[in-house]
Predict the 3D structure of the following.
Amino acid sequence: MATVFQQSVWKALEKIPQGKVTSYAEIARYLNTAAVRAVGSAVGKNPNAPEVPCHRVVRSDGRIGQYSGGEGVPTKVRLLTEEGVQTLEGKIIDFEKVYWEFKP
DNA sequence: TACATGACTATCC
DNA sequence: GGGATAGCCATGT
């Protein structure tokens, strides 16, 4: 289904430019909620994977986290690397430099 | 550093 | 239609 919550999350994901990443907490804060798990749940079960760059969302501690699609986390890491976000063993390199903040 | 608790939703009984 | 469970996590102890 496509609830307003999910649509809001996906819409926020589309605002992330290529080569940048953001965190679930950032999205939750952008949606004015504290349910970061709900965000992950909504993004993880998104029915329109290619339209939503869910691989540009990582954990707030700089780690990749999980990924549902393709080969899983390796696919997420590879996509990020292709877009210019360097990773090392499931962790973002220069996380502060590629971190994208949502503007109100 | 590792474990337990917390907020909110979608999905499965 | 209603209640219970789990989820691409965060944060505090």
Observations:
- Residues 1, 3, 5-6, 28, 33-39, 41-42, 45 of chain A lie near DNA strand B (CB under 10 Å from a C1').
- The first strand of chain A starts at residue 22 and ends at 23.
- Chain A has five helices and four strands.
- Chain A has a mean pLDDT of 91.
